[in-house]
Amino acid sequence: MKIAQIAPLSESVPPRLYGGTERIVSYLTEELVRQGHDVTLFASADSLTSATLVPGRFRATRLDPACPDPTASTMLMLDRVRRMADDFDILHFHMDCVQFPLFRHLADRTLTTLHGRLDLPDLYPFYHEFDDMPVVSISNSQRRPVPDANWAGTIYHGVPAALYRPSTEPGDYLAFLGRISPEKQPDEAIRIALRAGLPLKLAAKVDRADADYFHDRIRPLLDHPLIDLIGEIGDKDKSGFLGGAKALLFPINWPEPFGMVMIEAMAAGTPVIAYRCGSVEEVVEHGITGFIVDSQDEAVAAVGRIGELDRRKIRARFMERFSAERMALDYVDLYRKAAEGRLHALPAIPDRSGWSNGAAGKAT
């Protein structure tokens, strides 16, 4: 198939350091090329790909202090995609909803993967209005707040199997990987590690928006000898970091749409201890690939049970459920259905998030 992948311009594809969406775009693009498809990637010029690269900007915007707002470059890139649209069987967007008004007349040849949270009041009327634009969720949980969206499927993220070296022996520290932000609760991870009496290594970045949270809530906790903030790391360092850990702590308190770090840990054979929020119950298999907990006490107890889990089985379950190959095959199935006019909206999932959108979802 002739496939266009359209990425955000905030990060390169793949990102140099942090960047979940662009990382998935890269994994999917490279696997589609490996499977023999003709793929064109619309992304920043500093991206690296085996597909045909059509640059939308000379450099990703997050690391460019001269461009605090990517809107102008994004709209220029989308106009180029629109002018080239007839060259492709499918246009696959990873930019949430900004392209909907421009591509509504081509709705039956588009697919949009929604990578972010959807439990925000302004999103409900938007997806209600654009209910002809096919969208893909990255977990069933993500879909609940916007039942009127035209859900074509749920496809879980995947990562290349060779990217992580599985470790069969647990390490002597706990790991936290991601962002220093209130919804990720690194302060909770610190408290869990201290109560368990184990070192905690935090491989995390601090966004400008979270600077106050870091200085007020996290910095005072970093003086303890068991706590080590090592900073932001890229793909080449993740395998050793995760594989060398006893477990990954994932004590979130928000409706996580997916949670890439959970499957990255599983790829390294490392179990996950996660709070029951968002997608966690769809990703972690309790008692097999980790433990799902509801409190700090339960998390501390789960640390003591890590020895019950088989790291080889964790890696095997990753291979079955979360490889890049599986992800690409699932997307190709949707691409073919779209090309043949066989996409059908999925039934709505009742919202259990506690937020009311103020309107009933339509029957599907």
TrEMBL record:
Pfam families attached to this UniProt entry: Glyco_transf_4, Glycos_transf_1
Domain Glycosyltransferase subfamily 4-like N-terminal, first and last residues per copy: 18-125
GO terms for MF: glycosyltransferase activity
Keywords tagged on the record: Transferase
Residue span, Glycosyl transferase family domain: 172-303
Protein name: Glycosyl transferase
Organism expressing this protein natively: Skermanella aerolata
